[in-house]
Write a structure and sequence with these properties.
about 25% strand, single chain, alpha/beta, 5-stranded parallel β-sheet, about 150 residues, Alpha/beta knot, globular, transferase
């Protein structure tokens, strides 16, 4: 199994150590790729408008759509940990997408296999990404009958 997590955010070292620890612990179950994207195109678009930003995010993410695709969005489906584990079970390739400052466009979300919410609260990218990596590890453990999930 290969799981890719894509996020649009300015590079931040906050929670990097914890995320790397979850990636390391997940290695026995899946290959985890964590990609943070932020470039001049996104910075310029975000300085202009929400619409420009969403177009920039789409153009960055479109080539990365592969496998079973899941967008994170506060209006998505709320899952408990066992439902999340079921969602990622039996898939060989999964791609998670965390939107930029303006989220993800409606057109991009239509291309996803599933839209999931980690919380109805709006979360900072760094916190959402940490929570996602923890839930990926938890889901992998649930699927492997590992006692991490009690």
């Amino acid at each position: 199994m290969e799981i890719s997590v894509y996020s649009i955010q300015k590079n931040s070292d906050e929670f990097k150590e914890q995320i790397l620890e979850y990636i390391k612990m997940s290695k026995k179950y899946a290959k985890i790729n964590d990609t943070t994207i932020f470039n001049d195109k996104i910075a310029k678009a975000q300085a202009k408008s929400k619409d420009e930003s969403l177009l920039a995010y789409d153009s960055i993410y479109e080539p990365k759509i592969k496998g079973f695709c899941i967008a994170l969005d506060e209006s998505g489906d709320m899952l408990d940990s066992k439902e999340f584990a079921q969602l990622i079970s039996s898939k060989s390739q999964i791609s998670f997408f965390i939107g930029g400052a303006y989220g993800l466009s409606g057109e991009f979300k239509k291309k996803m296999d599933r839209i999931v919410s980690l919380s109805r609260l709006t979360l900072a990218h760094k916190i959402a990404k940490l929570m996602l990596h923890e839930q990926i590890f938890r889901g992998l453990c649930i699927n492997a009958n590992h006692p991490y999930h009690k």
